[in-house]
Design a protein that fits this description.
mainly alpha, two-stranded parallel sheet, 6 strands, binds zinc ion
């Protein structure tokens, strides 16, 4: 994953800061320390165990704070430069089986989204949460929906109906603006009604 947030303006994209990366290595070490010193059931654990536990907690806090800082700084710029903000309304899934890196990225996305919504509302911006389904499959130009989900490594969206070609995430960002009821710049003839997901979804 390269980006935490993709916007319709290149200048406002937020690259993945990888705050979790260095921490992940340390975390693994402390967790091994905890495992080695694991107390019996119902016992509090020795000094070493408690110390490792404290380090894990401190590390979690530090990474969370870094994420929040990055998210707030970014949100400030976005809110300063835009009156209307459409945000995809989804919750990252913190799957138990996903990798540490994936979990870190999801946590960063959640923190960033929260910061943007809070900052936007605080400054009186028109913030709209949009339906998250099919944002990667719909064409921001003609509203047609692709029959199949694009494989993740495919970074370019190509519409079979109208031939519109766009970086994948940029197309999604524009689809979101359409869903919010706005017409993104440079997208002519796009119909917000067509870009809406079906009622059944
Ligand atoms: Zn199209």
């Amino acid at each position: 994953m390269k980006q935490i947030a993709t916007t319709t303006s290149d200048a406002h994209d937020l690259p993945h800061a990888q705050h979790g990366k260095a921490a992940t290595r340390k975390l693994a070490r402390y967790q091994r320390m905890m495992a080695r010193r694991k107390p019996g059931k119902g016992l509090p654990g020795g000094k070493g165990y408690q110390a490792a536990k404290k380090r894990v907690a401190r590390l979690y806090k530090k990474v969370a704070r870094q994420r929040q800082d990055t998210g707030r700084k970014w949100a400030k710029t976005v809110v300063r430069d835009h009156d209307r903000i459409a945000v995809e309304d989804f919750r990252p899934k913190f799957l138990a089986r996903s990798s540490m890196a994936r979990k870190a990225a999801d946590a960063a996305i959640a923190a960033t989204k929260r910061a943007l919504i809070e900052m936007g509302r605080k400054h009186g911006r028109d913030v709209r949460l949009v339906h998250p389904a099919y944002t990667t499959m719909d064409c921001a130009h003609c509203g047609a929906r692709a029959k199949h989900r694009m494989p993740l490594p495919e970074r370019t969206y190509t519409c079979i109906a109208c031939g519109f070609v766009s970086p994948r995430d940029k197309n999604s960002a524009r689809v979101m603006l359409l869903r919010a009821g706005w017409n993104p710049d440079g997208v002519e003839g796009a119909s917000p009604a067509k870009a809406l997901p079906p009622q059944a979804a």
